Structure formats: C-alpha cells, structure tokens
C-alpha cells in the first residue's frame, strides 16, 4: 500500500514538474524572441527617444519600403495594414482586391521591440514558406468526354457551399512570422475544429521537442485577422505558393 502511495506521489510530482517546465518555457519564449530581434535588427545610430508622431511617419515609411521592394515581383502580393484595418492583394502596385478587417489581434511582443528594430524588421516583405487551410487552394474536376451526343448530359446546377465551409488559413512566413486569417463569424463545424486542433498540436509538439532538448522554444510572432468569407477565400486562392507579404502594425 505504501509503495503505491509513493508511486502516485512520484507520478503526480513528475506531472507537476512537466507542467511547470511548460509554463516556464512559454514565458521565456517571447522574452528570448524580443532579445534576439532587438540584437538582430537594432540600429545603434537610431535615436529611440523621438516623438510618437515622428515614429508614426517612420512606420509608414518602413511599410512603403516593403511595398516598393515587392514591385520587382511579377506575382500577386499580400498587403496587410492593421493600422488602416485593410487587407489587399496587389500586383506591381496595382490593387486587385481590398478587404476590410472586422477583427484583429497580434503578438504583444511588438510593443516591446525597440523602434529601430520594428522599422528594420518590417521594412522588408516577408516570404510565404508554407501554409495550411480548411479548403483546397486549387480544385480540379475530372470529367470523361462523351462518346457521342446521346451521352451528353444537360448541365447540372451546383449548390454554393461557401456558407457551409469554415474559411480559415494559416500562412507560415520566413523570419518566424505567422498569419492566421479567418472568415467573420466562422462556423464552428468539423473543419474549424480540425483547424484549431492542428494549430494547437503544432504548438504543443514544438514545446515538447524543445523540452526534450532542454532549450527555450523559438517564439513565432503572429497576427490574427477576420475578414468576409468570400474575400478570404479569394485571397488565399490568388496568392502564389511563395508569395510576398508586406505588413504594417
């Protein structure tokens, strides 16, 4: 009986230790990210004590620099302006689609970055490395051609499934940035639940791998935005696989 009690104490002690380690790693991760970003992108010649009004102009300049660099791309690019609550698709400076952001949220670490770090970090467009979505980016329909006119069937009207889908997609960018875009008033169906489960599993899996290696996990800055479903779907389908993204926070 005593042995069982000791085993239970050890077992629960291990669980508490693991949970405590997870909590500590979660706290240290963004702190480490802030330190690394400030070391990588900090400009020693920049005066950090400028006025807020002047910093607003500098952020706009950094945003325009990122957009200017995208002009060299012959593919569709994504432009996210949280300050203006807009998301646009652009091709060499020409706006193709504009969507209004209904809801937004972002990492809190951006408020703790040095001003020069922020400006340098966002003055270059990000590149999409991979993505994940609740719907296919490209849909293919395979049809067998009729042998003669007797096998030709009249066209059948297709039901619009847009209202039955949960339109969500995640863009994994270089420089460890992540963008989570979802439709406004997302349907909490199986697609939505699987989407959330996958993102949660990714985070837990990364924490476990870091725990096994006895190191602080790398933090991924993120933004979450909600826009109308049809516009979210159009944006995802129009973006190339390794498209460029300019962001203004």
Describe the structure.
By secondary structure, the chain is of the alpha+beta class. It has a single domain, classed as Beta Barrel (L,D-transpeptidase catalytic domain-like). Helices cover 40% and strands 21% of the residues. It contains five helices and nine strands; from the N terminus they run ααββββαβββαβαβ. The chain has helices at residues 2-41, 52-69, 115-122, 190-212, 229-238; strands spanning 77-81, 86-91, 94-100, 103-106, 126-133, 168-173, 178-183, 222-227, 244-248. It has a nine-stranded mixed beta sheet with strand order 3-2-1-9-5-6-7-8-4. A hairpin with a 2-residue loop joins strand 2 and strand 3. Helix 2 (52-69) packs parallel to helix 3 (115-122). The protein is flat, with a radius of gyration of 23 Å. The termini are far apart. The model has no long low-confidence stretch (mean pLDDT 85).
Write the layout of secondary structure elements.
Elements: H1 2-41, H2 52-69, E1 77-81, E2 86-91, E3 94-100, E4 103-106, H3 115-122, E5 126-133, E6 168-173, E7 178-183, H4 190-212, E8 222-227, H5 229-238, E9 244-248
Parallel strand pairs: 1-9, 7-8
Antiparallel strand pairs: 1-2, 2-3, 4-8, 5-6, 5-9, 6-7
Please identify the structural class as seen in this structure: alpha+beta
Beta strands, count: 9
CATH superfamily: L,D-transpeptidase catalytic domain-like
Shape: flat
């Amino acid at each position: 009986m005593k042995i069982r009690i000791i085993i239970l104490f050890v077992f629960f002690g291990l669980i508490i230790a693991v949970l405590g380690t997870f909590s500590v790693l979660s706290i240290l991760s963004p702190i480490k990210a802030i330190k690394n970003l400030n070391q990588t992108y900090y400009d020693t010649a920049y005066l950090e004590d400028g006025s807020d009004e002047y910093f607003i102009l500098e952020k706009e300049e950094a945003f325009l620099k990122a957009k200017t660099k995208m002009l060299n791309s012959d593919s569709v690019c994504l432009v996210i302006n949280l300050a203006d609550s807009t998301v646009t698709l652009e091709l060499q400076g020409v706006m193709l689609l504009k969507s209004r952001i209904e809801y937004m949220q972002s990492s809190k670490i951006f408020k703790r970055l040095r001003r020069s770090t922020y400006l340098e970090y966002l003055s270059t467009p990000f590149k999409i490395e991979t993505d994940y979505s609740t719907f296919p980016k490209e849909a293919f329909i395979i049809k067998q051609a009729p042998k003669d006119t007797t096998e030709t069937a009249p066209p059948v009207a297709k039901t619009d499934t847009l209202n039955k889908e949960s339109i969500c997609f995640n863009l994994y960018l270089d420089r460890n940035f992540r963008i989570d875009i979802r439709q406004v008033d997302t349907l909490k169906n199986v697609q939505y639940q699987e989407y959330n489960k996958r993102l949660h599993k990714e985070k837990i899996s990364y924490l476990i791998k870091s725990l096994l290696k006895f190191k602080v996990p790398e933090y991924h800055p993120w933004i979450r935005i909600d826009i109308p479903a049809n516009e979210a779907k159009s944006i995802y389908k129009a973006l190339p696989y390794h498209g460029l993204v300019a962001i203004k926070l």
